[in-house]
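WARN retry 2 of 3 for item q-0093 after timeout on previous attempt; input resubmitted unchanged.
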Amino acid sequence: MSCVEKAVNQSTNVTKSSSFSLVPEPEELRIVRIVVFSVIAAFALVGNCVVCRAVWRNIGPKPIAHSFISNLALAEIISIICLLFTFHAYEAPYSWSLGLVACKILEPLQVASLLVVTTTLATLAVYRCVLLIKPTVAKLTKRQTGCAILVSWVGSVGLSIPAGYFRAVNSYGENCDIYYCEETFPEDLRHHQNTYSVVLFVINFALPLLIMAISYFLISRKVREHVFVMKSIRDEESKAFSSVTKFSTCADECNMVHSNDKVVKGQVELDLIIKTREYKNNGGGEENTQDHRPSLDIYNKNTFELENDLLKLVFVLVFVFVICYIPYQVQFLLIEFNVEAFMLWPHRYTFGRVVFTLTCLPSALHPICYGTMSRFYHKAFLRIIACRNHRNSQM
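OK item q-0093 returned
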């Protein structure tokens, strides 16, 4: 379809709804929104680069969740870089100026990175659920984790291929001087375009959200059961303690003397146990002091502490994702199903730009969450801020 034919179609669409026109975005709001987006992009790029660097350069114990978080950070870096290149096309004068090749690569790559983000968040939610509900289940190996990350990228890129293949740069305006990078299916495949959009919506948002909801429902139920069990144990302990107290006050002097003898013996045994543990903790003799191999118990303890920090962190990541992505996905459904009330809303453009900026916010908030809620990432951020490398911090 030529530029003139497109202009004719646009004019006919305007005549069908001659009383409708979009209200332009206020200039003050546009300036604030651009500044906010710039700050978000800067925080996202710097923060996620620090996260990837901290994980990749760490030579200590690496929990499996660290691999998924570094994958999440990498996907957010790619997404922000693509948005920095495509942001101009949605601002005045609203024209695509990067050519056909960039049109076919940047937008689909940004879609693929978002698919990886949502897939990784759902994987982290399931991982947290399994660790809390069935802690005895064997954890993923490094090879299995790498395969899972590779599958998420291959699948996401595969799903975004149609979005890149059918993209084209179309010209508009009286002089054909305004260009849009659009996803345009051929006439014989036009009926599949809506199906493809719905599939992307389900995989990119609906399915991960469902997985997260089920995971945290199971987690909350497990926590309630644990609280109930702990409360029952405390009640039983308090009852046993009260009965022992009553029995001890009613005991005769002979029994008290006999019990005191047992207490003395028990104290001696307890002192012996304590000394034995201190002996082991201090090195267990000359043979252990000469063994410089890292202790497996210390390794497991460090790994457990890192896992515990990440379990609390995952919930915040998922919460931020849901809050920031829901408005954009609602807008997507309203446009996809051509809801007349929304399509004729005068402030639809302004709402769309604000909601789009909101979807970029998690990329900047995630590194902040890492630095404030995880001791591992907190130390990594401090090393970067203090301009000290990892080796100097260990000296």
